[in-house]
Design a protein that fits this description.
By secondary structure, the protein is of the alpha/beta class. It is built from ten helices and 17 strands. The chain has a nine-stranded mixed sheet with strand order 16-15-14-13-7-12-11-8-17. The structure holds nicotinamide-adenine-dinucleotide.
Length: about 375
């Protein structure tokens, strides 16, 4: 049977652009998708970059600017992997042209922009997705299932961290990530662990934040000194609707940490822990009656943890980071083709943006911010 085609227009070929290209290519081959994915057109910061990316990554065409791509009648999905400050104008232009929008996180630079984007998406009646790819991990889905089945009892506490070290070097140049319009460790990395906390434990109803700038000035690549007015380390205590308490930390100068997206969940009858450094493993402790044999067991990803089996028939052979993007893409594409709700649409992205801003607000006022 001839499947309808879904034509992708991608903006950006940096870190995330490449991950999305991997994701589309893998999803098209690993899953029996309801559509045929076409890598139709790519735009980048300059026409030269776009042309080079087109040939290198196998797009059919390139556009000279993102504006041209957003208005292109030959694409169905506008995929945004540009810096945060560009998400709003790009998404609004794509929505005005009736495109489905796939946008990297964080959704926008602030709540005002994210609200405008969410309203425009609802008005356009198209599908949207924000790139919170860690949630696509089959081991997260297992953790959520174990919690809902009551395997670790009543959930009492959550401790989450997203730490990397790419800003640990004082000499690391000033970049768009240091711009107060959407930058900072809490917006950049904290948004991921906040999304994970709510995915696993449920709605957050209060935050008490503490954000800190450790390196006050950085040099641009041209050599001029710029004052940094975003956080390098952000923390927050959390209260959840279900009565649990918790905390998150976002840290982009945690020397030695390459990808610590990790959580610990403690319940009345056990605990679950995870660390993205070992993304195919979930550690489960179930409180028993024999103290001599109690302890954490390691559950290793395998075909029982869908959709692992679509990638590989053998357990323990492991999925990778790019595979999580392929799963996120499958879920988004199925939402488009089968008129289902998206895994993480703009409204969900707006909620994360509001939580990040609540942490900033609480930090400034040095007190708890209500989030009910
Ligand atoms: N989901 C995740 O795990 C994850 C990881 C890293 C980054 N991100 C997000 O992805 C986005 C991009 O981050 P990155 O690390 O890929 O950045 P990057 O700097 O590596 O890539 C950005 C891309 O956007 C292009 N670009 C810049 N200005 C442009 C313009 N005016 N028009 C068209 N293209 C333009 C650049 O040329 C580059 O190709 C950010 O929103 C970031 O927060 C998400």
């Amino acid at each position: 049977m001839n499947k309808p085609q879904l034509r992708i227009g991608l903006i950006g070929s940096g870190f995330m652009g490449k991950t999305h290209i991997f994701g589309f290519a893998t999803a098209a081959r690993v899953f029996d998708l309801p559509v045929r994915i076409e890598l139709e057109c790519i735009a980048d910061a300059t026409p030269e970059l776009a042309r080079a990316a087109m040939s290198r990554y196998g797009f059919r065409r390139h556009a000279d600017s993102w504006e041209e791509l957003a208005a292109d009648p030959g694409i169905d999905v506008l995929d945004i992997t540009a810096p945060n400050a560009l998400h709003r104008p790009m998404a609004i232009a794509g929505l005005a042209a009736g495109k489905h929008i796939y946008c990297e996180k964080p959704l926008a630079v602030d709540v005002t922009e994210a609200t405008e984007m969410t309203k425009a998406a609802e008005l356009a009646g198209v599908k949207t997705q924000v790139g919170f790819n860690y949630l696509a991990n089959p081991m997260f889905r297992l953790a959520k299932k174990l919690i809902s089945e009551g395997r670790i009892g009543e959930i009492r506490s959550f401790r989450g961290i997203h730490a990397e070290d790419y800003m640990a070097d004082r000499a690391a140049p000033w970049s768009w990530r240091h711009d107060s319009r959407g930058g900072g460790a809490t917006a950049d990395l904290g948004s991921h662990i906040i999304a994970t906390a709510e995915y696993l434990i449920g709605p957050i109803i209060g935050v008490c934040g503490d954000m800190h700038t450790a390196i006050q000035e950085r040099r641009t690549s041209e050599g001029s000194e710029v004052r940094v007015n975003v956080d390098d380390v952000g923390r927050a205590f959390l209260r959840f609707e279900n009565g649990a308490s918790g905390s998150i930390e976002a840290n982009w100068m945690a020397s030695g940490q390459k990808m610590q997206h990790a959580f610990e969940i403690y319940g009345s009858d056990g605990a679950i822990t995870f660390d993205q450094n070992r993304l195919n493993e979930l550690r489960l402790h179930e409180t028993g009656t024999d103290g001599r044999t109690e302890g954490f067991r390691t559950l290793l990803a395998g075909p029982e943890h869908a959709p692992y089996g679509e990638f590989c028939v053998a357990p323990g052979h492991q999925l990778g980071y790019n595979d999580l993007k392929a799963i996120e893409i499958r879920d988004f594409i199925e939402a488009i083709a089968e008129e289902r709700s998206e895994p993480f649409n703009f409204a969900a992205g707006l909620r994360i943006q509001r939580l990040v801003e609540a942490i900033k607000d609480s930090t400034m006022r040095a007190r708890w911010t209500d989030f009910t």
